[in-house]
Structure formats: C-alpha cells, structure tokens
Amino acid sequence: MSTTLEAPIAATKPQQRSKPFTSSEYLDSLRDGREIWIYGERVKDVTTHPAFRNTVRMLARLYDALHDERKDIICTPTDTGNGGYTHKFFKAPTSVEDMVGGRDAIAAWARVTYGWMGRAPDYKAAFLATLGANPDFYQPFDENVDARGLP
Amino acid sequence: MKLDFIAGLLLKSVEATGAKDFRGVQVQVGEVLAFRNLFWGLTDAMARTVTPWTPGYVSPNLEYGLAYRVMANIAYTRLREVIENVLASALIYLPSHANDFKVPEVRKYLDPYVRGSNNYGAEERVKLIKLMWDSIGTEFGSRHALYERNYFGNHENIRTEVIAIADMMGQSAKYKGFAEQCLAEYDLNGWTVPDLINPDDVSVVMGNAA
Would the pTM of this model clear 0.90, i.e. be above it? Predict the structure, then answer.
C-alpha cells in the first residue's frame, strides 16, 4: 500500500495528467472518503474491506496493463498535445484500423479479468467517444460536450 | 473473452469427467465453440465493415451489432444448458470446502472416489468443476447469466429493433423486392419470363381448365 502526502491524484486537474493511472494511483484514488454501504454499514476503505478489496485489486490489474508490455495493444496517443495516451476505445474512430484497434484493446483488457468484469472502465468509452464526434446529437447541450469548447 | 474462458473450462471438464469421447457430448461442446467463434466473427464484422457516421468518423456495422445482441441473448442460455447436460452430476458431488482435502480422514475417500478420468486427480478435478459451477450455477454464476440475458436490452426490444432498423435502412424493402422478383416470374398461366418453359407438354392439368 502506498501513502501520499499530496492531494489525491483524482483531485488534480485532468489537463495536467498525460498518463493513465498506475494501479497504485488507482487504489490511492479510491481512498477519498467516498460513501459506500454494505450489510447496513458504511465502508471506510474499499481497498481493504473484505467485500470489495479483491474486486478493486482486479480493477487495479487493468491499470497495470496500461503500463506494461500490453500497453501497445491497449493504448493510443491522445490528441490533446500533451504527449499522453489512453485506452484505444476512448478514441473516436475514423477508420477500420481504429475500430479493430478498439476491439483488440477491449479484448485484451477483458482478458485481464478472465472476461468477468462486465462493466470495466472502457465500457462507457462507447458513449464518451461519441461526444466530440457527434456533439449535435446532444443539442441543446452540445456546447457542453464539445471538447473544443473547453478552456 | 468470457466465452474463451468458459470454452476452456468446458473442454477440460469433459476430460475430467471422461465424457469427452462420447459423440453426443462432442456435438454439444462443438456447439459451444461455434458460439464462441460466432461472436468473435461478429466483432470482426462490426469492426471491419464499418458504417459511415458523422463526417470523418465511422461506427461499428449496425446490422451486425444488432445481430450480436440477439445472438448473445440466445447463446448464453444455451451455453449453460449444454454445460449442465454434459457435466451433469459432476457439478453436484463436490466437497464443501478446500479444508476437506486437508483432513486425512476425508481425503482418503476423496482421492479415490472423486478422482477424474484422463489423469485428473481428485483435487484437480474438484478445483476445476467448482470454477465451472461458479461460472454458471452459483449465486455469482446465476447473476451473470441473468446479466448476459438482459445486458443488451430486454429480450423483446433487441429483436423488434432489428426490424425497425431494417425498415429504416431500406433493407426490408430490398428483401421484399427480392422475393417479389421471384413472384413476378410466374402467374396463373405459368412462367412470365422468356427463358423458362411451361410444362404444357408433360402436365395432365395444364391447359385443361380453359
């Protein structure tokens, strides 16, 4: 277990990050006093509670996969200009190559949990990747979803 | 990836039970592998025959994606049925806990009577079949089955939406047109096309009604 004196990573501005979480950063980010209940009791720390600790650790393995030899299969550079990278499925696809790359990244990540993590973090990429590509769909709130409108 | 995992468990489980060489078992295991290949094939088709989207962007092939939804609803249910058919009581007679193997008084019975075929020892067999049961039958496995059955939407909408999209994309009209093309090739008087020949010369009924 790592300890940190700075502010939790999740609280820093997203623009300052160019790399995805490592597994230990991910685990740290969960120790933020979030409100989780089970068996009628508030959970103090999901990373140590017996009901959640191993699920959380399996999720942490997903983050490990973004930093080891699986990185090339799973990740792609971002277009924010900060030299960062992310899971391929978060990129709005412009070609068959993008699409197959996204599929392969999904599969490689699913393999980490033996296929049993139904809603891994890439699940919502199917939705998030539509924001920049199809902002008109979200009218009259399209300005909120178009990344180009962000400061 | 879950199908890869379950396929691997199933192939090992029928080795352990000794049923792998029965033709009836092979028929059903083959079906499970075919489903596994079907879904990987559908993801290939979705990713490689993309549908144009907003300017500059592509989306997965919509028709194949809709087919995936319906097949997933069918396949997972069938998959569990096959596993329960071919493994049957192997999924039932399992010791209660790993601790049973650590007690000599119980272990002496487990080793000879719960051992598997094809050189699977008792511990190896129980470990394997318990993982399979956790995949398809326990509270965890059953929740997953319910999840897979409904994941893509309720069982009705995932089907009716296939028609709605086919109507919208003009596919329904195309399919009906294809059927109509055949219907237009004949009428009450026989073939209406020049290259096919009426059976007037060999039929006892043609030509007698007039």
Answer: no
